Amino acid sequence: MGTPSVLWNVAKKCFTVGLVSLTVSDRFASIVSVRGGSMSPTFNPKTNTLFGSLSDDYVLVEKFCLQKYKFSHGDVVVFSSPYDHKEKHVKRIIGLPGDWVGTHYDVVKVPEGHCWVEGDNSASSMDSRSFGPVPLGLVNGRVVHILWPPHRVGSVERKAPQQRVSSS
Amino acid sequence: MLPTLNISGNLLLAERISTRTGKLRPGDVVILRSPESPRKIVCKRLIGMEGDQVTYVVDPMNSDRCQTVVVPKGHVWVEGDNIYASKDSRNFGAVPYGLLKGRVFWTVLPRKDFGSLAPKPK
Predict the structure, then answer these.
(1) CB within 8 Å: A84 and B33
(2) Which of A79, A164, B9, B18 is most buried as measured by Cβ atoms within 10 A of its Cβ?
(3) Of the residues A38, A40, A125, A128, which is catalytic?
(4) How many CB atoms neighbour CB A7 within 10 A?
(5) Does B98 contact chain A (CB < 8 Å)?
(6) Measured between CB atoms, which of A69, A81, A113 is closest to B35?
């Protein structure tokens, strides 16, 4: 007689917690793990010690920026890949709509509603230099803090490379 | 989106499950974030999925010239039903699938259109 009601209470609590955490991670902030070295040294810097290369970085992604879609140069954002909506990438915004961005071969104007993203580690990063400007509607959130590993906990700085971008 | 939707506005029901499970098919009316302005949600009809060959009239007001394009991987081609007055993939190109937000399946208002939406007019 006691067990079904205990189970029911546990089920209700799990459902409430699940619903609340889903709302929070969808609208306010969520924790995401970063894989790959395209944003090194900001995330996952290649180190020689065994301890440093064991785990991926965990970062805090805020979703308040999606209310107005106002981003600044140098923001690190999470966005769905234009080629596969299930994949998410983490890169830095280099150019905003209307900017002229210089690539290896020519100068590209970022169209309205799009942004130009690049990884901090230009040598091994699949970014706007391969798939072009990314529509801002694909952005899922902005990375604000590194939460793991403990020796690199801190806020993520906004680093804007001035030399290659000219704003209108 | 005339004549499927009303000139003075509709109240529609859209579901968000089909976009997540990927069960959209050409002919569905979808809502998506505009690639030109991320705060704007627009309603268009899905014409082609990735890999499809889409033939469209480039400028129906002035000429009959058609163009054929293959929809790139991860993208879809959307067009409004009223091609004479619609800004859609013919203007801003194929749209990444991640911008699709939902599928419209029911018209609530105006009362005379209550029910599921009409298929694409020929």
Answers:
(1) no
(2) A79
(3) A38
(4) 10
(5) yes
(6) A113
Question: Strand B75-79 vs strand A76-81: parallel, antiparallel, or unpaired?
Answer: unpaired
Q: Do B74 and A139 touch (CB under 8 A)?
A: no
Using one digit for the tens of pLDDT, what is the confidence trace for B43-69?
Answer: 999 999 999 999 998 888 888 889 999
Which residues, numbered 21 to 40 in chain B, qualify as contacts with chain A under a Cβ-Cβ cut-off of 8 Å?
Answer: 32-39
> What are the angstrom distances between the C-alpha of B28 and each of A41, A50, B90, B113?
45, 52, 18, 17
Within 13 Å and on the Cβ side, how many CA atoms surround A38? Answer: 17
pTM exceeds 0.90, yes or no: no
Domains and CATH numbers, chain B: 11-116 (2.10.109.10)
A38 is catalytic: yes
In this predicted complex, what is the ipTM? 0.86
Q: Which residue numbers in chain B have pLDDT < 70?
A: 122
Report DSSP state, residue B52: -
